[in-house]
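Translate structure to sequence.
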């Protein structure tokens, strides 16, 4: 069954994890798939392995142990995970001794994976990462095992991550799990109930990251706006942002996955007053038809979401809003889709992503009647994205002539760079192509005058040649 999910193999990107640790000769390679929250888990596992003497390599061709930290959120993610497992498992004919599958796909299909993919030596679920050394040891001794079902585990704070992002940017996970129970979503079953980290632990990690050279912190969780409700009986994201703003060395703080119903007056004020907090919010709206929102078990109406977005733009004029939408949810009528289309046209989001509904077993929506044909889902997705392309082009053209602060991500060629502004999150948003002197490196921050605009990217020239 799981073999059938494999499609054409993708090229594998290798992480830059720096120098290998001294210690055991066994080398471990990590392939991290899916979301940034999964990436943090991968970095924690690498940290545990390095603490216990394992070497970390960025080349799977020389690794004796490989961990594939998988995503199992939607069908496409499951297929991608299987692709990578099969591709890396082929190294068993060479130097590879043990292949471990971790993460959401492992949590969801542990027994199926072990039964159907003989390449796999072990499966580790989302709450059992701390057992990774034990797993590596046991599988090297010939054991075949799995650890799953511990989804509500609270990860200990004693381990340091091995960053796989560029040294100037890092994700900061402030909680795990989710209590929202949207009818299309499997995350609560894979990640457990909502569990906030203690604020002092988050701040300690932020300071450590800053001391290591990180300039940009990207605050993540399944739902960042719910942070603290389980530990402190109140929403603590505003206070957390206040404290993160004080951390020396950090220049930008970016917040992802802010649920609209939890965007409070206090949070808006915190974003306004803290200069390091980017005026950028990722707010997953998902739809605009109240009928569809209700079937999704979302906790806001179109009118409430509109009011929240309008307030954010009114009180923070340079606010950049990102959202994600789902088209083709069961029972989505043409009038529902048209309402969503008009909503996007009216709201004019700076950043927007559209997903076609993925029918996932073990979710309530799996059994909903009136499932939408894939061809219609894809057509609706195309229509929204074509509209968004027009909106994004106009938004970008409005920036021509303005001077923006940018961080360099990549040196393209002599005197040319690719960077991001405060309004661009890595991986998911566009960037700015920059011309200027040849003495800058990734991680440098400088001022750029916008000279041109494309659908999703900007073009600019350096105006401040001093900022390294």
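Result:
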């Amino acid at each position: 069954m799981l073999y059938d999910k494999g499609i054409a193999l993708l090229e594998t990107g290798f992480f830059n994890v720096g120098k290998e640790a001294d210690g055991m000769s066994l080398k471990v390679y990590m392939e991290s798939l899916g979301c940034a929250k999964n990436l943090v888990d991968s970095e924690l596992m690498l940290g545990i392995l390095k603490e216990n003497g394992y070497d970390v390599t960025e080349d799977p061709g020389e690794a004796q142990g490989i961990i594939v930290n998988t995503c199992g959120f939607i069908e496409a993610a499951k297929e991608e995970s299987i692709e990578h497992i099969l591709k890396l498992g082929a190294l068993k004919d060479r130097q590879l001794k043990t292949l471990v599958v971790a993460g959401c796909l492992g949590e969801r299909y542990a027994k199926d994976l072990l039964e159907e993919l003989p390449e796999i030596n072990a499966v580790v679920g989302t709450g059992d990462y701390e057992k990774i050394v034990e797993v590596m040891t046991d599988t090297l001794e010939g054991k075949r095992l799995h650890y799953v079902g511990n989804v509500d585990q609270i990860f200990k704070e004693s381990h340091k991550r091995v960053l796989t992002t560029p040294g100037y940017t890092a994700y900061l996970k402030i909680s795990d799990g989710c209590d929202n129970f949207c009818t299309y979503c499997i995350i609560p079953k894979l990640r457990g109930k909502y569990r906030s980290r203690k604020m002092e632990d988050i701040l300690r990690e932020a300071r450590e990251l800053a001391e290591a050279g990180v300039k940009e912190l990207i605050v993540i969780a399944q739902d960042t706006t719910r942070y603290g409700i389980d530990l402190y009986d109140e929403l603590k994201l505003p206070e957390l942002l206040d404290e993160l703003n004080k951390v020396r060395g950090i220049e930008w703080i970016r917040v992802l996955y802010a649920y609209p119903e939890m965007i409070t007056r206090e949070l808006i004020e915190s974003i306004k007053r803290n200069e390091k907090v980017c005026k950028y919010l990722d707010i997953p709206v998902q739809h605009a038809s109240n009928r569809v929102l209700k079937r999704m078990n979302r906790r806001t109406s179109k009118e409430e979401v509109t009011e929240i977005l309008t307030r954010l733009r009114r009180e923070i004029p340079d606010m950049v809003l990102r959202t994600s939408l789902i088209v083709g949810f069961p029972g989505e009528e043409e009038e529902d889709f048209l309402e969503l289309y008009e909503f996007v046209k009216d709201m004019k989001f700076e950043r927007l992503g559209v997903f076609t509904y993925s029918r996932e077993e073990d979710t309530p929506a799996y059994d909903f009647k009136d499932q939408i044909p894939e061809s219609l889902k894809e057509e609706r997705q195309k229509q929204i994205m074509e509209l968004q392309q027009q909106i994004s082009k106009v938004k970008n053209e409005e920036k021509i002539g303005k001077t923006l602060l940018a961080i360099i991500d990549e040196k393209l060629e002599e005197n040319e760079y690719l960077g991001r502004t405060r309004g661009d999150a890595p991986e998911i948003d566009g960037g700015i192509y920059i011309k200027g002197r040849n003495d800058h490196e990734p991680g440098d921050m400088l001022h750029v005058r916008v000279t041109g605009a494309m659908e999703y990217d900007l073009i600019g020239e350096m105006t401040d040649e001093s900022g390294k």
